[in-house]
Amino acid sequence: MVKAASLAGVNVEFLEFPPVVTPPGTTKSYFLAGAGVRGLPINGVFITFTGLGLYLEDKAVPYLASRWKAKTPAQLLDSLHFYRDIIQGPFEKLIRGSKLKTLDGPEYVRKVSENCVAYMKSVGTFGDAEEKAIHEFRQAFKDQNFPPGSTVFYEQFPNGTLGLKFSKDDTIPEHRNAFIENKALSEAVLETMIGEIPVSPAFKESLATRLSQILNEANPSIEF
């Protein structure tokens, strides 16, 4: 059993990811599974653009512990199946993507959606329904601009629906900007972040480190 007091938050440059969050309109809490920076090398210099964090509901702990308890961070980091169990697991997930640099909404979603389409095509899950979902996904961002500190929240539900919330800071809004019912797209969003070709290796490593500790301490439930 992991107590909230034993969970630490994570700082990604000037962004703070608290150990536990409770979205408005619910009493359900989600614990921080990991957080890290996303960036790109430009002219030999690594430029950071986004801080990514993944929050999971409590039922993720017994589910993952039954498969991965007693594994070291290095063993988890080396296993794609571990990350696929997170991506495809039957529990709620909340992804926080907070901006370190100003990003234009249409340009941001273009790159994200291209990565998602490429992944879905590579595993054979891209069809007419996914093409429609990608269009909805892009439309949600068409009038958005994200200054430093602003956030995109991705809500992922076991039935495959994907909720999008936009915030000018790190506060989780109650209002959803979009709600897309497509399991393949929802899984692809997280796959591109922590899967086989991750946009943020630091995020992926943080998940292995934190979840190794949480799962090894699991009883196998988590209590807040």
Automatic annotation (TrEMBL):
Residues 12-213 form the Chalcone isomerase domain. GO terms for molecular function: chalcone isomerase activity. Pathway: Secondary metabolite biosynthesis; flavonoid biosynthesis. Catalyzes the intramolecular cyclization of bicyclic chalcones into tricyclic (S)-flavanones. Responsible for the isomerization of 4,2',4',6'-tetrahydroxychalcone (also termed chalcone) into naringenin. InterPro entries: CFI, Chalcone_isomerase, Chalcone_isomerase_3-sand, Chalcone_isomerase_bundle_sf, Chalcone_isomerase_sf. Belongs to the chalcone isomerase family. It comes from the Eukaryota. It holds the Pfam family Chalcone. Keywords: Flavonoid biosynthesis, Isomerase. PANTHER family: CHALCONE--FLAVANONE ISOMERASE 1B-1, CHALCONE--FLAVONONE ISOMERASE 1-RELATED. It catalyses: a chalcone = a flavanone. This is Chalcone-flavonone isomerase family protein. GO terms for biological process: flavonoid biosynthetic process.
